[in-house]
Amino acid sequence: MNAPNVNDAQNVNDAETAMGAETAMSAEKLLLADLEHFGEMFRWNEETGERRVSFLITLVTAILAALVALATSDPPPDAMKEIAAGALISVLVIGIITFLRMLQRDRVSKEYKRLQSDIRCM
């Protein structure tokens, strides 16, 4: 049986050092990938919220234009008050839902920003 020599111990030590460096590089790459992912998710979340608000503004404009067109038609419909009430209630409900969704979006955006900050501090 051969006795272990100094070169074998040095080779093991070099291998452990290389593995430690490789692990550190892997961790760094993983953190960079996470940072990029959270950045993309933050941007996607913000863009989605902006599209929701744009949709709401477009919808409100279209409904108001339709109501004005109905009110100015000759003769105005007999059920104009009911049509207007239904349309405005619909806009109110959609507006409240959009507002609540925007609050949720803001909470998620803050969390993405916090995660990005935590990764940058590492």
> What percent of residues are in strands?
under 5%
How many separate helices? 2
SSE string, helix = H, strand = E?
Answer: HH
**Termini gap:** 48 Å
- Major β-sheet, in short? none
| SS-based class | mainly alpha
**E-strand count:** 0
Mean pLDDT: 85
User: What is the 3D form?
Assistant: rod-shaped
- Extract low-pLDDT stretches: none
Residue share in helix: over 70%
Rg, please?
31 Å
State the gist of this model.
This protein has 122 residues and is an all-alpha fold. It is 89% helix and 0% strand.
Report on this structure:
The protein is built from 2 helices and no strands. The protein is mainly alpha-helical and 122 residues long. It has a domain at 39-121.
Structural descriptors:
122 residues; mainly alpha
Furnish the topology, listing elements before pairings:
Layout: H1 6-72, H2 80-121
Helix pairs in contact: 1-2
